[in-house]
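Long-time lurker, finally posting.

We've been working with Nucleoside diphosphate kinase (Albidovulum aquaemixtae) and I want a structural starting point before designing mutants. I don't trust myself to interpret raw outputs, so I'm hoping someone here can both generate the structure tokens and explain anything notable. Sequence follows.
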Amino acid sequence: IERTLSIIKPDATNRNLTGKINAKFEEAGLRIIAQKRIKLTMDEAGKFYEVHKERPFYGELCEFMASAPVVVQVLEGESAIAKNREVMGATNPADAAPGTIRKEFANSVGENSVHGSDAPETATVEIAFFFSGLELVG
Ligand code: GTP
Ligand code: MG
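Top reply, 14 upvotes:
Generated this for you. Predicted structure of Nucleoside diphosphate kinase:
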């Protein structure tokens, strides 16, 4: 059993899509074992996305992530990291497969509705960024 960090991004919380996105996770067999709605500061967004700090869109990405509330959550299941990325779809919604969250809901490559950890090591770090062990109720 594996765990991954998911974030429902500002474009999706603004459009009241939290429940529809959670239904996609649950239908795929992912269990939401922790979840909270928070508003990131620019500092927190910058720290979370530090790996992207040399990319040209870093400033825009951090401003977007701090622009409105996000829902951070831990998803648990068999191959949860890969399964979540499959349900999310490609980064750019134009390339995302039918039925994926990004195909159905994302506005653009930047405002793409969800984040998901990309590997076991990053999942561990990203979960610890937002949650204490006591908050994970599997
Ligand atoms: P995450 O799950 O959010 O990490 O998405 P990803 O792994 O599919 O994409 P990647 O890690 O390459 O990029 C991280 C995030 O940066 C993306 O989800 C987008 O929100 C944003 N991003 C990526 N490329 C662009 C871009 O060309 N322009 C803008 N504005 N944002 C981008
Ligand atoms: Mg990524």
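Before you design anything, note these points.
Helices lie at 10-14, 18-27, 42-48, 58-65, 80-88, 101-105, 120-130.
Residues 52, 57, 60-61, 91, 109-110, 112, 115-116, 118 surround guanosine-5'-triphosphate (ligand 1) (CB under 6 Å).
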